[in-house]
Amino acid sequence: MIATVPLLIIPLAIYNILAFITPGYAWANVLFSVPMVSGVSWDVTLSDVFIVLSLAFLFFEIVKATSASTRSIVDHMLSTLVFVAALVEFLLVAPAATSTFAILLALMLLDIVAGYSISIRVARRDFAIERPE
């Protein structure tokens, strides 16, 4: 059952926990700085770390999409529902109206499009039709 849960719901939950438990916390706050060879300092923000974490979840979500099974279809439908819920949240809830959340939405949309595309491709491969010669 856990395989049918869309993994991008985890970054969505993390975002909501941070946004609502610590209201007013700026996603642009610097977590740490990395000195670069060029002499400048690379400031890593909470938003940067969150986006990279979300990309990691997207990778595993796309790997899950490579299997042609009933679970995969349910996962795609649930991913679509999570995207719609997040889109409504983005439009109606003030703490969600940030660029970080918009990027998370874009990742969710990419997950849906890639998931359906990959599933169709895998299904075509599994159900190859022989042509008469």
Q: How many distinct helices?
A: 4
Cα end-to-end separation: 44 Å
Structural class: mainly alpha
The total of beta strands comes to: 2
Rg, nearest Å: 19 Å
- Average pLDDT number: 86
Largest sheet, described in full?
2 strands, antiparallel
Describe this structure in words.
- With 133 residues, the chain is mainly alpha-helical.
- The chain has a domain at 94-132.
- Helices cover 62% and strands 8% of the residues.
- It is built from four helices and two strands; from the N terminus they run αββααα.
- It has helices at residues 9-21, 46-64, 70-92, 99-126; strands at 30-35, 41-45.
- A two-stranded antiparallel sheet has the order 1-2.
- α2 runs parallel beside α4 and α3 (70-92) packs antiparallel against α4 (99-126).
- The chain starts with 8 loop residues before the first helix and ends in a 7-residue tail after the last helix.
Break the fold down into its secondary structure elements and pairings:
Layout: H1 9-21, E1 30-35, E2 41-45, H2 46-64, H3 70-92, H4 99-126
Antiparallel strand pairs: 1-2
Helix pairs in contact: 2-4, 3-4
Short description:
The protein has 133 residues and is mainly alpha-helical.
Q: Which tags fit this structure?
A:
single chain; about 130 residues; mainly alpha; two-stranded antiparallel ribbon; 4 helices; 2 strands; about 60% helix
